[in-house]
Design brief:
The complex is a heterodimer. By secondary structure, chain A is mainly α. Chain A folds into 2 domains: about 240 residues; about 100 residues, Periplasmic binding protein-like II (D-Maltodextrin-Binding Protein, domain 2, 3-Layer(aba) Sandwich), CATH 3.40.190. Chain A has 16 helices and 6 strands. In chain A, the strands form 2 sheets. Chain A has a 4-stranded mixed sheet, with helices on one face. In chain A, a hairpin with a 5-residue loop joins strand 5 and strand 6. In chain A, helix 8 runs antiparallel to helix 15 and helix 12 packs parallel to helix 14. The radius of gyration of chain A is 31 Å and the shape is elongated. Chain B is α/β, with parallel strands linked by helices. Chain B folds into 2 domains: about 220 residues, P-loop containing nucleotide triphosphate hydrolases (Rossmann fold), CATH 3.40.50.300; about 60 residues, Alpha-Beta Plaits (2-Layer Sandwich). A 6-stranded mixed sheet of chain B has the order 6-7-8-3-9-10, sandwiched between helices. In chain B, strands 2-1-4-5 form a 4-stranded antiparallel sheet, with helices on one face. A 4-stranded antiparallel sheet of chain B has the order 12-13-11-14. Classes of the chains: A mainly alpha, B alpha/beta. The interface between A and B is medium-sized, with 28 and 34 residues.
Chain lengths: ~450, ~325
């Protein structure tokens, strides 16, 4: 037992003193956060202040077109050609020209000249506003009350709620992406640390040190020590990454979350107004696209907040350990059977394939969360760590989670037992290309 | 007292071939025991069984009269033929790790390592990584690690392969030194020169079977062929006539009037009778029996065995 301790210790030390490993441990969260920030930042509307001079020859938009927080409007009736000439030297960032048709009708067309591109958000905002104003103008021109139309053209929302056996209603929409992320992270973790075991086994074999070691400890002890050592390395690395990520997120969210909170407050105000105004006007506000987008976003946030993160985290760790042990013992067996990484392809494929299947099931999960394939996949030990984790935010029954976990751990004992048989023969085989047949025979050596 | 190692009727089969077939051996205390045989004869399989890396299918192994078990690992030192070290790990740390795996306490291992590092003039190496060392330097480290826990039984598989002559001599001296201190050494090799120089006893394996064993001196004696080398001055024809049917000349070489002849005595003629017969016709300069070398015995026994089995050596281990 103390010898396994020595092996674990060496494995941990050799990884933790490896420069590449240290750099990656600290760099990964930075890259991760960096990528998140980049995505977040690019998805935020641009807040560059725009000063738009509107030259409206139709007169329709003078009092109806409104600016917003970052677009300020100035209306003018001066000559279009002259305004265009003066624009480069003026204080305005852009200028919008709306001409009247030759027959006196309004042509639904505006032209914007800019100095620096004001961004898509600006363009979309202006277009939508113009469209809405023109729409109401047209209705009125035909003596139709816009309120009637708005009232008639309401979106029909379909809300999906899950009812469990106790009758508790749960709204679980909008968490699919989170589910998928869990499955993906699980797959990457298993693969990453499993490959670490594979390389470490192969390294000992190609270094020719393994025979010296197995003359002191049983091959099984060496293999288990190595697997456990790397598991601990994985947990240390995961913890480090998590701590750095959390710290950075807290700091950064101070900057970004303020925006979300502002938006949320505004949304809540709107919601209150909607409720007060009652059917007609309320419906009008409800149907604006901004409101709908916000509703979707806050729904998702609310759902995410409802997920029991403590439970999910605990099971993540349990499934990770089970899945890692399951796969790493298989990968250790492969590592022992080959002499170089290039020889390992034919053995690696059947091990990677089930992981890929698990990944595809996690994708399928987003489309139909409770299909048979997904449920079955969440019990088979080859895919269960990934698929069950992906199901976790959907709150599957506890007996299913525990059964899946039990199957996984029993299978791990089985694969480790098989792997140990391959391992102790494989590590001492040099210079011969190994085949599946050969490995099959090793299982029966005494 | 029981011998340090007794191997009784050990058989080991792999799916495609038999590696050891009913092999029995006894290794006595404080001896240097040579385990000989061509490639694929089963030497490494036997050594791995003694080291408990694999187990026998049949038969048993007794270590000092006790059935071999995991607690004996600490009393055995093993330098495999395929030997190496962790390339990226510092030498000292690595030696400490391997010593601890053999059951030494850390402090004790440190003390002993300090002694050996000084003896082999490696004081500056402690913090160096293995891939910064030359091959010869690595071999010194490997040897120290093998003997650091002062094993009673030391097993060296092809210990001199890849050693330069200086290191080989260093290791040879250490082996003899260790025997003097009470260790028993099993030593597997193809290098017959070192067998004659070092071994007290040998066993010869071929095709998974033991075909010969015993003390080196006695083996060489039993393989005597009654052949002598005679150097003399005088007439070679007179020498030949004098021998008549009592001997056969296998080979002759003349340098002016000095002749060197290898004769094999026949029909129960003794060496004194032969000398008496030839003395009148020539002047003897030297006379010596030709005792076969271990190399000759090895070749003759192995090829004899192969002929008996009607096969050529075709193992691909």
């Amino acid at each position: 037992m103390s010898k396994i301790g020595l092996i674990i210790g060496r494995e941990i030390k050799s990884k933790l003193t490896n420069k590449t490993f240290i750099i990656m441990t600290f760099l990964t969260p930075l890259i991760f956060i960096g990528a998140m920030c980049l995505i977040f930042w690019t998805s935020m509307p641009e807040k560059i202040e725009q000063r738009l001079l509107v030259i409206d020859k139709t007169g329709l938009f003078q009092n109806t077109l409104k600016g917003n927080d970052f677009i300020s409007l100035t209306f003018s009736n001066e000559d279009i050609v002259k305004a265009q000439e003066e624009f480069p030297a003026s204080d305005y960032t852009s200028i919008m020209l709306i001409e009247k048709g030759s027959d006196g009708n309004i042509i639904p067309m505006a032209r914007i000249l800019y100095k620096k591109h004001p961004g898509l958000a600006f363009q979309t905002y202006i277009r939508q506003e113009l469209e809405n104003i023109f729409y109401e103008y047209k209705l009125k021109a035909n003596n139709i009350d816009p309120a009637i139309i708005t009232n008639a053209r309401q979106g029909f929302s379909v809300r999906m709620d899950k009812v469990d056996e106790n009758g508790t209603v749960n709204h679980a929409e909008g968490v699919q992406l989170f589910s998928f992320a869990m499955g993906l992270i699980m797959m990457l973790f298993i693969l990453m640390y499993g490959m670490m075991v594979f390389r470490s086994v192969m390294e000992e074999k190609t270094n020719r040190i393994v025979e010296v070691i197995v003359s002191s400890v049983r091959p099984f002890e060496l293999m288990i020590g190595k697997i456990l050592g790397i598991a601990i390395v994985g947990i240390i690395q995961f913890a480090t990454t998590a701590i750095i990520t959390t710290t950075l997120s807290v700091v950064l969210s101070g900057i970004f979350l303020k925006d979300i909170n502002n938006l949320k407050e505004k949304f809540d105000d709107q919601n209150a107004v909607v409720n007060k105004l009652g059917t007609n006007a309320g419906a009008a506000l409800h149907s604006t696209s901004e409101f709908k987008n916000n509703q979707k976003m806050f729904d998702t946030i609310n759902q995410l907040q409802k997920i029991n993160f403590v439970k999910v985290s605990i099971f993540f760790v349990l499934f990770f350990i089970g899945g890692y042990l399951f796969y790493s013992s298989l990968l250790a067996a492969i590592g022992s059977a080959v002499d170089s990484e290039s020889d390992s392809q034919q053995f690696m494929f059947p091990v990677i394939l089930p992981l890929m299947i698990g990944y595809f099931l996690a994708i399928k999960m987003m489309i139909s969360p409770e299909s048979n394939a997904v449920v079955i996949g969440s019990f088979i030990p080859f895919t269960s760590p990934i698929v069950m984790m992906a199901r976790m935010p959907q709150d599957p029954p506890m007996w299913q989670i525990l059964t899946s976990l039990a199957i996984l751990y029993v299978s791990f004992i089985l694969t480790t037992w098989l792997a140990a048989k391959i391992y102790r023969t494989g590590i001492l085989m040099y210079g011969k290309k190994t085949s599946w047949r050969e490995i099959g025979k090793w299982l029966f050596y005494k | 007292m029981p011998p340090i190692l007794q191997i009784n009727n050990v058989t080991k089969t792999y799916s495609s071939h038999t590696a050891l077939n009913d092999v029995s051996l006894t290794v006595n205390d404080q001896a240097v025991f040579g385990l000989l045989g061509p490639n694929g004869a089963g030497k490494t399989s036997l050594i791995r069984i003694i080291n408990q890396i694999t187990g026998p299918d049949k038969g048993e192994i007794l270590f000092k009269g006790e059935k071999l078990n995991p607690k004996h690992i600490e009393h055995i030192g093993y330098l495999p033929e395929e030997r190496g070290l962790y390339k990226k790990m510092p030498v000292g740390e690595q030696a400490l790790y391997l010593a601890q795996l053999k059951g030494l306490k850390k402090a004790e291992a440190k003390k002993r390592l300090a002694y050996w590092f000084e003896k082999f003039e490696m004081q500056g190496w402690w913090k160096k990584r293995v891939d910064e060392l030359s091959k010869g330097m690595q071999q010194k480290v490997q040897f120290i690690v093998t003997i650091l826990h002062e094993p009673e039984l030391l097993i060296l598989d092809e210990p001199f392969s890849g050693f330069d002559p200086i290191n080989a001599q260093l290791i040879k001296n250490e082996i003899l030194e260790l025997r003097k201190k009470g260790a028993t050494i099993i030593f597997s090799t193809h290098n017959m020169g070192s067998v004659e120089e070092l071994c007290d006893n040998i066993a010869l394996l071929n095709k998974s079977q033991k075909i010969l064993d015993g003390p080196v001196k006695e083996i060489r004696k039993t393989f005597r062929t009654n052949t002598y080398k005679v150097m003399f001055k005088g007439n070679i024809l007179g020498f030949t006539n004098a021998l008549w049917t009592g001997a056969e000349i296998l080979n002759k070489h003349s340098d002016d009037d000095v002749h060197s002849v290898t004769v094999k005595l026949l029909n129960g003629v003794t060496s004194s009778q032969m000398l008496q017969a030839v003395l009148p016709s020539c002047e003897i300069i030297s006379f010596a029996e030709i005792v076969p070398s271990m190399n000759d015995i090895f070749i003759s026994k192995v090829s004899e065995g192969n002929e008996a089995l009607g096969t050529k050596s075709n193992y691909t281990e």
